[in-house]
Amino acid sequence: MEPSVKISIRELSFFYHRTQVIDSLTCRFRENGITAITGPSGKGKTTLLMTLNRLWEDTPGAVMTGEILIRFKERVTNIYDPRVSLPWLRKKVGMVFQTPNPLPMSIYKNTAFPLMLAGIKEKPVIEERVRQALEMTFLWDEVKSRLNRDARTLSGGQQQRLCMARALVLDPEVLLLDEPTSSLDPRSLSMIEALLTHLKKDRTIIMVSHYLDQVKRIADQMMALS
Amino acid sequence: MSLRAVIVKNILFFSAFISAAVTLGIFVFMAVLGLPLFREGLFLDMLSQPWMPHKNSYGIRPMILSTLSLSFLSVLIAFPLSLGCAAFVSVISPGKAGRFVKSMVGLMTGVPTVIYGFIGVFLLAPLVRDISGRGSGMCILTAAILLAILVSPTMILLFSSAFETIPEGYLRAVDALGGSTVQKFIYVILPHSWKGVLAGVTLSLGRAIGDTMIALMVAGNAVASPASLFDPARPLTSHIAHLIAADFNSLEFKVLFLCGMALYLFTLLSAGLVNILSSGKKKEAL
Amino acid sequence: MRSQRLEFAVTLFSWISALVFLGIMTTLLTYLLIKGAPYLTLALIFGTTSPLDGLLLKQPVLNGLFPAIAGTLLLVFFSVLIALPAGLSAGIYLAEYAKGSVKGFFSLMFDLLAGIPSIVVGLFGFSVTIFLHQRFFGNLYPCLLISSVSLAFLVLPCLIRTTQTALESLPLSLRQTGLALGATPLQNLFRVLLPRALSGIMTGVILAIGRCAEDTAVIMLTGVVVSSGIPKSVFSNYEALPFYIYYISSEYRDRAELGTGYGAALLLLGICGLLYFAAFSINRRFKNAFRKRV
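Output (structure tokens, whole complex):
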């Protein structure tokens, strides 16, 4: 695996209840930058994302074959190696969903949640990293006065940026985005695009998108599933 | 609406109305027949005095105390067991093992109460007698253990359905953030389902209060207020069963209506609480 | 480190709870099986009477469980017969017609009825009978009919709830199909919705049967007796399996009689287990039928 390659997929096939959605896909994603995955619906775009953080494994009737290697800072890892711990993998590979999914708790707790899961206890550290994450997603100024409000009271665009902040708070090396802007207003859309352009400098972002103009605006490479 | 539709609708409404009327009728009937007690100002005495028919004292305080201590104790025993089992079934091991345990739990809900009582008399009571070295083994502790076994299947199913109402999106979010199963349970599922858990506890408490057969067969039937776990007791339900042979027009029998009303009011309280808890949940879902 | 310990503790606790539960269950069932299985013979049911004569009512069964089984079956039959029309209609009303506060009121009433201890329902049935006996019908006593009516009250909420749930869980698309084809709401209800909800409703009926078969508190106040033979009419006393088990537990005279108690307990457990499995499999078929449609 060459040094510039972040993710290498070999002979990936995927089935839901014997229906094949991905047929022996082999491809590579370069380190840093945005790769946009496009293609008609039902062609396994979301599934492909979920093979990268193994989120599909709880789905009944799903079967996967093939190999996926990711070059993490420590070492190159076969993410389906039985020794790989899921929590560890998912802290390294963050994901943001199509519809915002804040947890039923306050804005602050939502953002701090991954830190808590990771066992970080020091309050000043948590506060600092929550602030950084919220600033990064341009949310800090909007919510700093009401951090203790339920996250579900935010607008859709704010919720999605909160989910983005939550995914970023642990500083993942890979970020998976499943049509993150499809349910957003134009203002939030441009904010998130600006954020992604900033993030891609030192992060590998893989994004499913339907909007070709968006892909042209921010993506560095494109991959069409058909 | 056509005439036929109107007729059908009215028949259906009438059925619902009758069924609801029975519910209220039970209380009204007991209140009317027990009315003399209220008129003679005996009401408060009855609630606060001991049961000594030969001294003309027909108080049901010992029975109320027995009912409360027995039911609370049984729920106290059943709660941790049920919480653990429900967590096992819905969260920790929802695969084959969880499904097996869940179907066994379902099967246990179908076991007749009288069978628990029967096993209690011949298996558990002698055991408790040997351990405590006192009396016949028919006591609060024996009855509470059996009641706990009786209510825990229902409690497990109620808890586990409360755990399973968590929106899929929340669980997915925790998964994607690298949370483990236990973290998911403690930080997201439990805080989100405490209302359902509380409703389950309330329903089980109501079931324990209302049970007759275990109280009758293994609680030991003493009309004094129980003071220790190994004391025999006679809860309200078995008091009714014991006195049913008394003369219908006697004061002794009238007291049964008081017992009935007390049990009815316990039920009303728990149904009301469950109603409030579940209506709050519906609002949140919207 | 601390979070790992918590992880381990919670997992361990849930495993132990599940194992304790299974342990209790196995102990109870094995105990009953070991003690009761030797007595599970035809003689347990028919005593010294020949089974055929007993079944055809040619000869009374004096020292077997046959009258108790027959009593329980009759009790179940009449209770469900009485409760079914009212339960179904009320359930349909709640699912299809009731709205807002009316629905809330009825729901609370049925939750309350479901929670009323069976001994209170029994007390009600008994007192009404005595009241009627003293004021109006001099020859009315606690009997099979009174027990059946009281038990009907007891299982009413179960029937109402399952009917309501079965109707309400039908998919919206199914509801609209009939209407889109020009059916009146009433035709839609009887031709489309009710037939599809039938197996869900059946689950409720089976649960109600189980409840009637196992209840002891209601019947011991409203007419069950230790020995009466097969009831001659709905106004007679009758015997029942659960009451026999209760009676034996406190009044058995010798080992053999106690053995029939174990046998009866095993028999009742078998009946209730069968009913549970019937309800369970019907319920699963009902759910699967709709999962496939979606």
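Chain C has one domain: 63-293.
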